[in-house]
Design goal:
Structural class: alpha/beta
Number of strands: 7
Strand order of the largest sheet: 2-5-1-6-7
Radius of gyration: 20 Å
Order of helices and strands: HHHHHEHEEHHHEHHHHEHEHHEHHHH
Distance between the termini: 44 Å
CATH topology: Rossmann fold
CATH class: Alpha Beta
CATH architecture: 3-Layer(aba) Sandwich
Number of helices: 20
CATH superfamily: P-loop containing nucleotide triphosphate hydrolases
Shape: globular
Oligomer: single chain
Number of domains: 1
Helix content: 55-70%
């Protein structure tokens, strides 16, 4: 339908030219909004990320019509949010410098139990987390329409990917990872899960991530000021943290860390099923073998990066395994609290029990069945050298 509309001139075909996207997204904003309190280095890094991502999409992704529309929409949104945040910080510079309580980051490769740990810790009344809608729409507004936008977005994604809520249950105002804030800074995690963009991914892995996390920290401080919870410990989580630990630690010098672990083969199977479901409907040439190989490479790369990053830090670190969470989550949480110097009290446990009760057991069983039905009968690819 989209291709017919473009052929007949009923609609304009989106462009993945970075200058065109910047022009379309920046309408109504000035160069001062673009720069705001950011350094010129941050702006240059963002533009270079946009250039690399657009080129990778044009040359490697083989997008179908829907994929092209989704790619253009997401990149235009990221550029526009950068200008919107710039204008906000020009008008209210203190927002981006809000003092926050020392945060805790849950780090681990995707599908290793990070979401379970994240939501358990965020349930503690002394802590807080980031709402799904706030992550994917980082610019605060009054009235706050972000829950409504998130509800519409989730409904549309649910039509495209029926497995979404089984693999990763979310609600518009529920606590979720900050992957949307990283997407707003053009970090790769949400993009590489949707599109075949190897040159952008490899370039990003070799790139200094500090400008991304400088932007991330400004958004977090703004979000804390908007919700009035700057005094509460923010529980952060995104698998991208595993490969960006030095930059994350640079942005938050008082950060504490919780690292998760799970059987590598189980992680790989779950990751392949998730990435395939997110990417398959956006490309003209879905390739399960390529997804298997890239998931294997990425998981090995992130595991090695996390191990190296944790070895080089003196911050408090707790470690927990997926099997420990399954066996006795209360004992696992107690261990986490002890290792990073927190006190687990009765009110925290009650809140965590309520969080556990909200997780539909049907979704957990359906996810296991979804992975089994995915028929990943081939063995995991042999290990290759991982270069950091």
């Amino acid at each position: 339908m989209l291709e017919r509309a473009w052929a007949r001139g009923c609609a304009s075909k989106p462009s993945l030219d970075p200058d065109r996207i910047w022009y379309d997204a920046a309408k109504g904003y000035s160069p001062q909004d673009e720069r705001s309190i950011r350094s010129e280095e941050d702006v240059a890094d963002f533009r270079e990320r946009l250039n690399w991502l657009c080129r990778s999409l044009r040359e490697e992704a083989d997008l179908n019509a829907l994929g092209l529309v989704m790619a253009y929409g997401q990149l235009r949104k990221a550029v526009r949010e950068r200008h919107q945040l710039g204008r906000l910080w020009n008008e209210k510079p203190k927002l981006a410098r809000t003092q926050i309580a020392p945060p805790i980051a849950v780090v681990g490769v995707m599908r290793s139990g990070t979401t379970r740990v994240h939501r358990l810790l965020a349930a503690d009344p002394r802590h807080c987390g980031t709402r799904f809608g706030d992550s994917h729409y980082p610019v605060p507004s009054s009235p706050d329409l972000r829950p409504l936008k998130a509800r519409v977005g989730l409904a549309l994604l649910g039509r495209l990917d029926p497995w979404l809520q089984i693999m990763h249950p979310v609600t518009p105002t529920g606590i979720d990872e900050e992957i949307g804030w990283l997407a707003a800074a053009l970090s790769p995690p949400s993009y590489e899960a949707q599109w075949t963009i190897p040159s952008f991914v490899r370039w990003s892995e070799a790139r200094d991530a500090r400008p991304v996390y400088a932007e991330f920290a400004r958004i977090l401080r703004t979000d804390a000021a908007h919700h009035g919870n700057a005094g509460k410990t923010r529980i952060l989580k995104c698998p991208q943290f595993t490969e960006d630990l030095p930059a994350l630690l640079s942005a938050f010098p008082d950060l504490r860390i919780v690292a998760t672990a799970r059987d590598p083969d189980a992680v790989w199977r779950s990751a392949v099923s998730m990435v395939t479901c997110q990417s398959g409907y956006q490309t003209r040439s879905p390739d399960l073998t390529r997804v298997e190989a890239e998931c294997d490479r990425k998981l090995r790369y992130r595991s090695a990066s996390m191990d190296e990053g944790l070895k080089g830090t003196d911050r408090p670190v707790a470690r927990v395994s997926f099997s420990e969470l399954n066996r006795d989550w209360r004992e696992a949480v107690s261990k986490i609290y002890a290792q990073i110097g927190l006190t687990l009290d009765a009110s925290a446990l009650r809140a965590m029990e309520a969080e556990v009760s909200r997780t539909p057991k049907r979704s957990l069983a359906s996810h296991r069945k979804q992975i089994d039905d995915f028929a990943l009968e081939r063995p995991r690819p042999p290990a290759e050298a991982v270069s950091l």
